[in-house]
UniProtKB/TrEMBL annotation:
Keywords: Kinase, Transferase. It comes from Candidatus Sulfuritelmatomonas gaucii. GO terms for biological process: glycerol catabolic process. This is Dihydroxyacetone kinase. The keyword Translocase does not apply. InterPro entries: DhaL_dom, DhaL_dom_sf, Dihydroxyacetone_Kinase. GO terms for molecular function: glycerone kinase activity. Residues 1-142 form the DhaL domain.
Length: 158
């Protein structure tokens, strides 16, 4: 399902951010999981997604791109997972890190993407790709919270 969602994102438009975001999502579905996805499996999936994106871009943290939100989100999730946190707590940590990373792009000059041509005029504006990553991780967090609430309300159906 994640592979299909990733390919759909890549086909959505001709923009580079759709291709990169699609690559990330598609790679999430490539990690072998057992019968149930746990927090460490999710961490492996996010790491695989980040590595897949890195094969397609030279952008990294500090370039005012989605990477400024993606790197800290994946790192925060991995740290929380390796310390034994639940997936919901790890995702909340990742979402907060992604939001901080996106907010930090406001103080950066774009070095990649369309905003690169703006030079110093890109200062004071959050990178849209970084904002997209922050929204993606916030949505993942909301989905996990809803799943957790559903299990508490009706455990026999989850």
């Amino acid at each position: 399902m994640l592979k299909e969602a990733g390919w759909s994102a890549m086909d959505a438009d001709g923009g580079a951010s759709s291709a990169i975001l699609g690559t990330f999502v598609a790679a999430l579905g490539e990690v072998e999981i057992g019968e149930e996805m746990d927090c460490l499996c999710l961490a492996k999936s996010f790491d695989a997604g980040l590595r897949a994106v890195l094969r397609h871009t030279k952008a990294t943290q500090g370039d005012k791109t989605m990477m400024d939100a993606l790197f800290p989100a994946v790192e925060a999730f991995e740290q929380a997972a390796s310390s034994g946190q639940t997936a919901e707590i790890a995702m909340n940590s990742a979402a907060a890190a992604a939001e901080r990373g996106a907010d930090a792009t406001k103080q950066m000059i774009a070095r990649y993407g369309r905003a690169k041509s703006l030079g110093e005029r890109s200062l004071g504006h959050i990178d849209p790709g970084a904002a997209s990553i922050a929204l993606l991780f916030a949505a993942f967090g909301s989905a996990l919270a809803q799943e957790g609430a559903a299990r508490q309300i009706a455990p026999q159906f989850s």
